[in-house]
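Response to reviewer comment R2.3. The reviewers asked that we include at least one raw input/output pair. We reproduce the pair for G-patch domain and KOW motifs-containing protein here without editing.
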Amino acid sequence: MQNKVPDGFEDGDHIKVDLRPESATEADYESIPVEAYGIAMLKGMGWNKEEGIGRTFKQDVKPIEHQLRPKGLGLGADRSAIKDLEPGKKRRPPKPGDEQEKEEELVMGPGGCVLVESGAHKELYGKIEGVDPDNARVMVKLAVGGKTVTISQYGIKLVGRKEYEKYSKDLSRFSKASKEKEKEKEKEKEKDRDKERQRRDEKERSHSDKHKSSEREREGGRDERKRKHKESSHDRERPPEKEARRPPAPPSWLQRDLKVRFIDKAFKGGRYYNSKMRVEDVLTPAICVCRTEEGRLLDDVKQDMLETIIPKSDNDLVMVVLGEHRGQVGRILQRDKNKCKAMVQLERYEEKIFTLDYDLICHYVGASDH
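Raw output as returned:
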């Protein structure tokens, strides 16, 4: 025993208290962690950290620790990809004889580095946190600001980790000087392409001239020249054919937070025909992403599938979608249903009243300045 007195110092009748250790105080109990006290009790009962508890089954079984699944990571997905979200450590240069590292694979999945190419967060870098394959959208955590946003997968570009670490938080990319440098580089590339195009054209032109001259030398005779003269005169008398002109593209009126009506009967078998929805994001001047009243997102919706809506209530806001005041928000003061016009007071011009056609305004459900 640990506190036993050596033999010869005590007998059965007399006990020497001064040979024994001092009693533990309350402060001693407070200084010992509860975990250490519990482990000491288990060790006293024969417990070993590397052996299991039991008579026959002595295998050490690690307990299952449940980890929170990130939002957007579907069932059955590879959880090992979560490690890619952690910042990478600096790797040493390869020594002679070491195998070279494999090229980085760009994966559209959690941990992937992307560059936003369109929308409100254009030219910002981020990392993918989740993928929604049904709606072709991804959840991206932006490097600048740390905000998580939902973006169409057609509006992002996968990039390597080196590019991400170099430019993700480089705010100088948005400066005027940086943009001017990029424009100068684009101009130089365009000049090089023009010079290369001119060299090819000159080479083809010289080759065709040589070919034509050799043909003229082989073709001789008066009859041949007369035939060519008749054909050329006939071609001069023929009026030139008019080139078919393409009809001009309709002007773009798509804006975010507009409430519109779906009028395409062929889309999804006519499931959304004549239903109202909200413009969630504008990808191109003629293509947008819409959200139905049930909350479902529809991607790649074309402008000609939608039409504007005039609100029935005077308290609802409208936005000018075409014309000089495009993008301005206001309220309808008076309607003329016979002429399909409305008197609108815009928030920026409170002292003026504008008479606008129904085709120039649309129901607006976004935030207002007032």
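The chain has five helices and 15 strands. The domain at 310-370 is CATH 2.30.30.30 (SH3 type barrels.). Further pairs are available on request from the corresponding author.
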